Amino acid sequence: MSNPGDPQRSQHDRGYYGAGWSQPAPPAGAPQQPGGAYGGPQQYGGPQQSGVPYGAPQGGPYRGPQYGGSAPAPRPPRTPADPRRAFAPGASVTNTAGALIAVVSIVLVEFVSGLVGLLGASFVVHPFASYGAGGSLVGGFVSGVFATPFPFYAGAFLALAFLTPVDRRSPLPTVLLRAVLAGAAGTIALALVGVFTGTFSAVRSGGAQLLIDVVTRPLQSGVPFTLMLIATSTAAWLWLGRPRGGRRAPGAPGTPGTVRPADAVPPATVQPSSQQGQAGQPGAQGAQVPPYAPPQPPSNPWGGPAPR
Asked: Are 233 and 183 in contact (CB under 8 A)?
């Protein structure tokens, strides 16, 4: 047998053990790369696993660095937020749903209340007629229900969705505290908008208008909105905590009768043989299987003596 690094080996040996039929043999003392000579295909009968370097353990996946890089460090597990804390930063579908239920409920209450007032005033004044400073009943309705309290809606929604969520795992006092904090965030949003509107009004009406837009009007609208937000957040908390899917089918997981007691004995998976105790009894169910008897060799396999 010739040495794989011997340049005098035959052409047949180079084609069989090397990378190809037309490549020359490696010089004497050249390092052997994995997969045959000069990094070519693997030798016949060698390991042919894709993505596993030569010499890696075959019992599991290769986890070492590849192509000179380093393996990324695993991320630490994320600790769940405490459901009893007032602030629980984070975003999720459940938090967004709770915020929508709470804020949209306030908008619906304001819409119904403003619509009733609009219908009552329309018996005296035409809804589209201008009065006072040039506004109309419809314009005052849209401004009082949607435009003016919009900063409160936006601030309360962002607070409930990302900072003080209506979490169904939280107790009711924590949910009420979070609703108060969300109402405070909405009131602060009204005050920030009042800084800009009061600045332009103060140029014409004096500095008192800035105080009105920054302090009194935000508190006048924010206090009743916060009380309504407490009620709507409680309704959202009850809605998110109710079971989903309606009535469950009989035998579904979680229905009564599907949980086995802790001391229950599971049924036997291997039935005892029915041969014992049923042999010789008339009317026994099932066919009786005879016991296994190994075959006996013949007494004279070569036959008798030849006749003379």
From this structure: no
Structure-token match 């169904």, residue found:
168
Longest dimension (CA), the chain: 151
| Spatial distance between the Cα atoms of 106 and 198, rounded to a whole number of angstroms | 26
* Contact criterion met (CB below 8 Å) for 218 and 187: yes
Give residues with Cβ within 8 angstroms of 142, minimum separation 6. Answer: none
Q: Which two tokens stand for residue 13?
A: 């040996």
Reported as half-sphere exposure (CB side, CA atoms, 13 A), residue 191 has a value of 14
Cα(250)–Cα(55) distance, rounded to whole angstroms? 57
Residue 115, both tokens: 């619509």
Query: Which pLDDT score is estimated for 39?
Result: 45
pLDDT digits (tens, 9 = 90+) for 276-308: 555 555 544 555 655 666 666 666 666 666 666
- Do residues 167 and 88 make contact, with C-beta atoms less than 8 angstroms apart? yes
Residue type at 131?
Y
pLDDT at 150 exceeding the cut of 60: yes
Give dist(CA 278, CA 288) in Å, integer: 9
Distance, CA of 69 to chain centre: 31
Q: How far apart are CA 53 and CA 19, in angstroms?
A: 17
What is the C-alpha separation between 218 and 225, in angstroms, rounded?
10
Model confidence over 80-128: pLDDT tens digits?
667 888 889 988 999 999 999 999 999 999 999 999 999 988 888 888 8
Distance CA 181, CA 95 (A): 15
Q: What is the pTM of this model?
A: 0.56
